[in-house]
Amino acid sequence: MSSKEWNVPASLVSKRTKNPIRAIVDHLKVVPNKEKHFISLALGDPTTFGNFKLEESCVDAVKSHLLSYKANGYPPSIGYPQAREALAKHYTTPEAPLTANDVVIGSGCSDALNLCIGAIANEGQNILLPCPGFSLYETLASSKGIECRFYNLLPGKSWEIDVPHLESLIDKNTAAILINNPSNPCGSVYKKSHLLEILSVCDKHKIPLISDEIYADMAFEGHEFIPIATLTKTVPVLTCGGLAKKFLVPGWCVGWVLIHDRNNIFHEIRQGIVSLSQLTLGANSLITASIPDLLNAPKEFYQATMAQLEANARVSKELLSNIPGLVPVFPQGAMYLMVEIQLDQFRDITSDLDFVEKLAGEESVLCLPGKCFRCPKPFIRIVFTPPKDQLAIAYQRIREFCKRHHI
Ligand SMILES: Cc1ncc(COP(=O)(O)O)c(C=O)c1O
């Protein structure tokens, strides 16, 4: 027997891989009131309540690929050529043309983001991220030793980017700017003029853009979703998307990167993304094979999803207005809205976290605190995908809770 002791420390990469949302959510002190049924407005998963369902023809398409026995092997790590071709055809525009060579399929939009961040930045460089923003960006970047710098979004301007602040964060080590449009957690949809402002910063400093468009096309009446790559001939853009939200199948974990690079600036990045895709043996074969069919789902399916989401957004606007101590920023798209908690209006609420815990304890309604998204001010995020009757009950309980705790 050797006298040497076992010593097997975890790797540096694993130790610096942390999702900040977990650190908060796993320590939430939530003891729901047993007298009231529990309603979660916390999970960004449209399938939770069973009211948002995938179109039947899509289910049939997956079934037929399953029964063909032709989608059981490993696809190429970047996805089947037919699926990449179908995505290129679906997303190409005269302003931002795409071919199958510009498409890389991965395991969800999360993986697409991981490929982009991994290919574009080195340890010691920095990447600019939205604040408040989806916490996975920080997890992916800091795991690779990339510094995260957070640019402010402005609640008073429908969560547009504070462009001077964004620009002030850029230095010679800035590898990329990442934007999320439409946004989680804010529910904002950027106007063309705002997207052009962002592009002009990229152009001026020659910084490429990563655009997380997982909520593409999910804009409400009066707001238009514009893929940012269609507005530039000069800025190279990596657009990330996936099946999770618009197609209502988050658990299928299939996403993609669309490489918009008119001037061959990304020739190394392109190869980098392909190399990184080889870290796994590609995304799920069955779902990847079904992509051409899913993209061909009847328009009525998307229209029905959006009509339901929009109706829920309207109910949210109606029932969350004029609640003492709350200032909602109403959504323009996606499935989220942020509500400011005016702490000075409450007797005994000390933070957004405190609000969330007390609300869950007294009213059995769970939201996430803005802290989960690095929001500097006290906010809560509401996911408005539950059925309308459940939303109405949850909002009524929030109103009663606020009245009770108001000064
Ligand atoms: C902004 C944003 N980007 C990416 C993702 C991850 O997408 P996927 O489930 O396809 O990995 C999410 C999931 O909630 C999200 O909200």
Q: Which band does the percent of strand residues land in?
A: 15-25%
Radius of gyration: 22 Å
Number of helices: 13
The H-and-E topology, N to C, reads as HHEHHEHEHEEHEHEEEHHHEEHEEEH
- Termini Cα gap: 71 Å
Strand order of the largest sheet: 2-9-8-7-6-3-4-5
The set of bound ligands, ions and cofactors reads: pyridoxal-5'-phosphate
Tally of strands: 14
- The shape, in one word, is globular
The level of helicity is 25-40%
Largest sheet: 8 strands, mixed
Helix/strand class: alpha/beta
The second-level CATH architecture of the largest domain is: 3-Layer(aba) Sandwich
Average of the residue pLDDT scores: 96
Number of domains: 2
CATH top level assignment of the largest domain: Alpha Beta
Low-confidence parts? none
Summed up:
By secondary structure, the protein is α/β, with parallel strands linked by helices. The protein has two domains: 146 residues, Aspartate Aminotransferase, domain 1, CATH 3.90.1150.10; 239 residues, Aspartate Aminotransferase, domain 2. It is built from 13 helices and 14 strands.
Feature tags:
407 residues, alpha/beta, Aspartate Aminotransferase, domain 1, Aspartate Aminotransferase, domain 2, eight-stranded mixed β-sheet, four-stranded antiparallel β-sheet, 14 strands, 16% strand, binds pyridoxal-5'-phosphate
